Amino acid sequence: MPHRQKTDDILSPELIRILKIFGLVSIGLVFILSFFNTKRANNTGDDLTFRMSSSSRLYFLNVRAIRYDRETRSDAGMLLFRHGSRTVAKTDPLLNLVLILNSRKDEAYLYLEPVNVDWPLELRVTNEGETQNILLENGNNTQFLAQVRQLEPWIKADADFEVKVGSAWVSIWEDPKEREALQAILGDYFRLINERE
């Protein structure tokens, strides 16, 4: 039987050399690009909406927290921060924006705290002739964050706020220092959850 020559070697030396080059280039490219990946996939199933990083928390506690009055809620493992420039009244209706740190979960929340007025709250907001009524209801962290996001453009626009008490409208957040405090709280909160740098 005559000897057959193999004319079609699948893995010729040239093909092996090409595969090595492309393989090494591919691995190198993946390795280099991994250094520039700032967004990581969340495969844990956890809600990271309220997650704060250790560096953000330390910056807040060591630098920014001196502007706040601190309340410790050891039963819940939370620290409540109310800005020092807020209005404090014994009988007038108020609405405090409270920043909450949950150290057990490494999360931060915002809470709208009514003072001398009950839920649900009806706000009337006026800016440059435009008026809007906003209904605020007691809820969970996600609902409070959504309500604060609804108020944020009005706060930044330095709008006039009123809260309905019975059939009367009472002004809140009138003092310029209090308006600055609201903006500071929003800035500190969004920095805590790494939403805005």
Low-confidence stretches: none
Gyration radius over CA: 28 Å
Number of strands: 8
The termini sit apart by: 79 Å
- Strand coverage percent: 25-35%
Helix count from the secondary structure assignment: 4
Give the class from helix and strand content and strand pairing.
Answer: alpha+beta
* DSSP helix fraction: 25-40%
Describe the largest sheet.
4 strands, antiparallel
How would you spell out the order of helices and strands? HHEEEEEEHEEH
Strand order of the largest sheet: 1-2-3-4
Nearest-integer average pLDDT = 84
Cα shape: elongated
Keywords: Membrane, Transmembrane, Transmembrane helix
Transmembrane segments: 15-36
Word description of this protein:
Keywords: Membrane, Transmembrane, Transmembrane helix. The chain crosses the membrane at residues 15-36. By secondary structure, the protein is α+β, with helices and mostly antiparallel strands. The chain has a domain at 60-193. Helices cover 34% and strands 28% of the residues. The chain has helices at 13-34, 54-64, 141-156, 176-192; strands at 68-73, 78-83, 94-102, 107-115, 121-127, 130-136, 160-165, 168-172. It has a 4-stranded antiparallel sheet with strand order 1-2-3-4. A hairpin with a 4-residue loop joins strand 1 and strand 2 (78-83). The longest helix is centred in the N-terminal third of the chain and has 22 residues, at 13-34. The protein is elongated. The chain starts with 12 loop residues before the first helix and ends in a 5-residue tail after the last helix.
